[in-house]
Design a protein that fits this description.
Elements: E1 16-18, E2 21-23, E3 28-31, E4 34-37, H1 43-64, H2 72-87, H3 99-117, H4 125-132, H5 137-153, H6 158-166
Antiparallel strand pairs: 1-2, 3-4
Length: 168
């Protein structure tokens, strides 16, 4: 796979062989659970994450809905422990994703919190987030990536130190 900026064109690269076997060129692949495409647009990865998290929300639906006997605090805790980690896995890598992709994850987070609190439609998502002390998803991602970058600064490897400077 070759990574390139959008709009860059390149011809089909030469075949690469490993132990005499040709390696097939692909436009996207999965590595450690992260879907990489040749433009690093992250749309496919975020769509897959959103689908997985929505499936988990559907499974947890009976526990989170208004007929459940669970408290709001436990419902939010279930979201934070079982759904949000799926959504923010490897977020320092896809920090450059477009706002529209991050917004898809924010919509899912707001839906989870609305279900857990049984909030009526006229209560705004900002108020729900503030009352529960749950940051917007973009703010949550920003804090995770800042923490990741600060850990890079303490690493002794000079290549990692250079990477940390370029990411700020």
């Amino acid at each position: 796979m070759l990574f390139a900026k959008p709009g860059w064109r390149f011809t089909e690269p030469r075949t690469v062989q490993l132990f005499g076997e040709p390696i097939k060129w692909v436009d996207e692949t999965r590595y450690l659970g992260v879907t990489l495409d040749k433009r690093l647009a992250w749309s496919k990865h975020i769509d897959q994450v959103r689908k997985k998290a929505a499936q988990r929300l559907a499974i947890l639906g009976p526990l989170l809905n208004r007929r459940s006997g669970l408290s709001i605090r436990i419902g939010v805790l279930l979201y934070k422990q079982l759904i949000r980690p799926m959504m923010d896995y490897a977020c320092p890598v896809w920090r450059s994703a477009a706002r529209s992709h991050i917004r898809k994850l924010q919509v899912l987070q707001s839906k989870c919190l609305r279900i857990a609190t049984n909030a009526p439609w006229y209560i705004g998502k900002r108020q729900i987030h503030d009352d529960l002390g749950v940051p917007y998803f973009s703010d949550h991602i920003r804090s995770l990536t800042e923490r990741f970058d600060s850990k890079l600064a303490g690493v002794e490897n000079p290549l990692v130190q250079q990477l940390g400077r370029h990411l700020r």
